[in-house]
Design brief:
Length: 76
């Protein structure tokens, strides 16, 4: 099972193989920043789904709406 699609893996490989001394232009920095924002959203969503599944199996919540209300009420 592959975790990333081919394009994502290519971008990740490129990032991991970048030399620290290689200068980046503004466009490259903007692309990397956008990529990181997408990764943050993806990881956060995955973590929330895992939390929901655990809490639902423990009987702590019955629905996604209940989970979101309980979990994100503190952020408001």
């Amino acid at each position: 099972m592959e975790f990333f699609d081919k394009h994502t893996q290519e971008v990740l490989d490129c990032l991991l193989n970048m030399e620290q001394d290689t200068p980046m232009d503004a466009q490259e920095v903007a692309v990397i920043d956008q990529l990181l924002e997408h990764i943050e959203v993806s990881v956060r969503t995955t973590c929330d789904l895992i939390r929901f599944k655990c809490m639902k199996s423990a009987g702590m919540v019955q629905s996604m709406d209940e989970f979101l209300e309980l979990f994100y009420a503190e952020e408001e």
